[in-house]
Amino acid sequence: MILKQLVVGPLATNCYIVGSESSKEGMIIDPGDEAEVILRNAKDLGLEIRSIVLTHGHIDHIGALKEVKEATGAEVAIHTDEAKSLQRQSSSTLLGLSYPIPPPPDRLLKDGDSMDIGDRHFLVLHTPGHSPGCICLLGEGIIFSGDTLFNYGIGRTDLPGGSYDQLMNSIQTKLMILPDNTAVYPGHGPDTTIGAERSGNPFLQT
Ligand SMILES: [Zn+2]
Ligand SMILES: [Zn+2]
C-alpha cells in the first residue's frame, strides 16, 4: 500500500494519500488545506485519485475539497449524518477559518460500507462523538481515526453536535476491540497504535 501523510493548514491537519501499488488508484483522506501541495504529492506518487473521503465535515478537514475535487474529478464520500453540516458550514466561520464552498458529496456513507482502492478495501466505521457523522476507515492492520482518537488524546466534544459520551462509546466499541498492533493515523498529530492508546491514553484509563 502507498501511504503519504501531509500536514496542512493552520490547524495542522493530517491529510493522507492512500494508494494501491498494483492499480495505481488512490484515495485522499481529509483534504484540509493546501490543495496544490496535495495534488502535487498525488501526482508524484503516480496515483489516479478516485475518491476523496472525509472523516467528518469540519472546516480544517475540507478546506481544499473544492479545488481537489475539481482537479481530480474524484468521488467525494462522507457519512450521511455529516453531509448536511458540510453544506451548512459553508457560510460559517467555525474555528475561525473560512473556505471555498465545497461541492455536494457524491456518495453518502454508513457504518459497514467499504471504500475500495484497487485491491485495497477500507471498512467504514461510524464513530460519532466529535461530530455526529464522524467515521474511521479500517484497512488491513491500519486505521485512519480522524478526530475521534489521537496519540494520547481524543477529539474535542464542545463543537456543535459533539457528545463526550458518544465519543467514548465509539472509541470503546469500535476502536478498542481492534488488535494492539493496529496502526492509528489520526486527523492531527503523530501516528500511534491501538495498543499504545489502550495502555497509555489518559482518557481511556479507568
Ligand atoms: Zn473536527
Ligand atoms: Zn480536525
Write the layout of secondary structure elements.
Layout: E1 2-8, E2 13-19, E3 25-29, H1 35-44, E4 48-53, H2 59-62, H3 65-72, E5 75-79, H4 83-88, E6 107-109, E7 114-117, E8 120-126, E9 135-139, E10 142-146, E11 149-150, E12 153-154, H5 164-175, E13 183-186, E14 192-193, H6 194-200
Parallel strand pairs: 3-4, 4-5, 5-6, 10-13
Antiparallel strand pairs: 1-2, 2-3, 7-8, 8-9, 9-10, 11-12, 13-14
The chain binds zinc ion (2 copies).
Task: Report on the architecture of this protein.
The protein has 206 residues and is α/β, with parallel strands linked by helices. Helices cover 23% and strands 31% of the residues. The protein is built from 6 helices and 14 strands. A hairpin with a 4-residue loop joins strand 1 (2-8) and strand 2 (13-19). Helix 1 (35-44) packs parallel to helix 3. The longest helix has 12 residues, at 164-175. It starts with a strand and ends in a 6-residue tail after the last helix. The mean pLDDT is 93. The site of one zinc ion has 7 residues, from helix 2. One zinc ion (ZN) binds next to loops.
Features:
206 residues; alpha/beta; 23% helix; binds zinc ion
Query: For the largest beta sheet, what order do the strands appear in spatially?
Result: 1-2-3-4-5-6
Which spans of ≥5 residues are poorly predicted at pLDDT below 50?
none
How much is the radius of gyration in Å? 16 Å
User: Structural class, from secondary structure content?
Assistant: alpha/beta
Proportion in β-strands: 25-35%
Number of DSSP E strands: 14
Query: Strand-and-helix sequence, N→C?
Result: EEEHEHHEHEEEEEEEHEEH
Number of helices: 6
**Ligands (ions, cofactors included):** zinc ion
User: How confident overall, as mean pLDDT?
Assistant: 93
Main sheet attributes: strand count, strand direction, barrel closure: 6 strands, mixed
State the shape.
globular
Helix amount, in percent? 10-25%
User: What separation lies between the terminal Cα atoms?
Assistant: 36 Å
